[in-house]
Amino acid sequence: MFILKRQDVEISSVQHPKREQQIPVLKYQDQTFRLISVFDVNQAEEAKNFWKDLTDNQGKFCVLLQEDHRHSVWGRFRLEQLGDGGDEASPVAFVQACLLILQAVYFDVEELLGGRQAKLFQQEITAALQTRQIPEMSSPKAMEQMLKVDPLGKFKAPSWAEQHLIAILQEVYRIGKEFFGNANFAEELSDILLDMPDTDRQVFLAWLKQSTLGKQWS
Questions:
Q1: The CATH number of the domain where 16 resides is what?
Q2: Is 146 in contact with 137 (CB distance < 8 Å)?
Q3: For residue 53, what pLDDT band results from cuts at 50, 70 and 90?
């Protein structure tokens, strides 16, 4: 909706009422916006394309903040939404990336450790995500469907908020590390996401880098 400069806005942070997490908040003309994604300074075009996709194609009310050292996209929200479960759904590309990562780790377990271990992995990840209350991932049947679906094909992406994506990637990392005995699989992220459109991949990796998962997945 708007392209803004740093002097146009006020940026602060608020404590999330349900998680130990500070939420960056941008204020502009009596409206509040929540950080969606961050881009390096040389990714101006990618940031603008991502912002335009959210506003023009997905109907989101967003601002693009252009600073000397970075570009960032923020989505409008109300502060009370943090406490009532009203977090907005993540971009479809983020959901696709999470599914690609989940599937890649699962197939690596199957290929390197065998079918029995792959079945155990599937059971453990299902139980973990059931505990974390991830929509559309809370049953063995739902998990089986997610492991078979083509994330980049024609399918209805689950409406996962940011905390759902983080929970999924945390559990995939934790359980994958238990099965392999190391976290080398997390270093193959660029290869796992190779089939994604360049802009989608870069935007997701930028979000991942600035999230709490940045030190795990690299």
A1: 3.30.200
A2: yes
A3: confident
